[in-house]
Amino acid sequence: NQSNTIFTNDSNHISHMMKHTGDKYYQCNQCGKAFSDNYILNRHVKIHTGEKPYQCSQCDKAFTQKNDLIRHDKTHTGEKPYQCSQCDKAFIIKSDLINHLRKHTGEKPNQCSECEMAFTRKSYLISHMRKHSGERPHQCSQCDKDFAYKNGLNRHMRKH
């Protein structure tokens, strides 16, 4: 299958092709995790640096990604434009509605390649895969401890 996508430069074309081949040339200097796209690597690095450049103007929350701030802003307005047709739930973003609909259908399209587990969300699968790989990407900035899951790091940080 070839796509008819047109690219403005070779770098964009190479990044696009790596998504199809699974090649990962961009590696994190902190933890060694590799990515197929430099943009995704730069987003990942903020986990280690703690950088959160996107500040909410209505409260003290800050975010590593602009999209997370946009989503958060809607919590202040109460806006939830994506309504489930099966129940009374509504969502801020469309992808949350799509994932929610899987609860009604039972669909779990994200299958673990190591065991029989399957998940409604890709992020749940990625998190689950750390059980198999032993990856611990969340590192404490105060000491040498690292954690597989962000909530483990958050609990640990309260002790500092």
From TrEMBL:
Q: Which terms in the Gene Ontology molecular function aspect does this entry carry?
A: DNA binding; DNA-binding transcription factor activity, RNA polymerase II-specific; zinc ion binding
The UniProt family comment states:
Belongs to the krueppel C2H2-type zinc-finger protein family.
The record's annotation in InterPro entries points to: Znf_C2H2_sf, Znf_C2H2_type
Keywords assigned by UniProt? Answer: Metal-binding, Nucleus, Repeat, Transcription, Transcription regulation, Zinc, Zinc-finger
Under what name is this protein listed? C2H2-type domain-containing protein
Q: PROSITE patterns in the record, alphabetically?
A: ZINC_FINGER_C2H2_1, ZINC_FINGER_C2H2_2
Q: Which domain of life is it from?
A: Eukaryota
GO CC, alphabetical:
nucleus
Domain C2H2-type residues, every copy: 26-53, 54-81, 82-109, 110-137, 138-160
Query: Where would you say this protein principally sits, based on its record?
Result: nucleus
Per UniProt, subcellular location reads as: Nucleus
Entries under Pfam families matching the protein: zf-C2H2, zf-H2C2_2
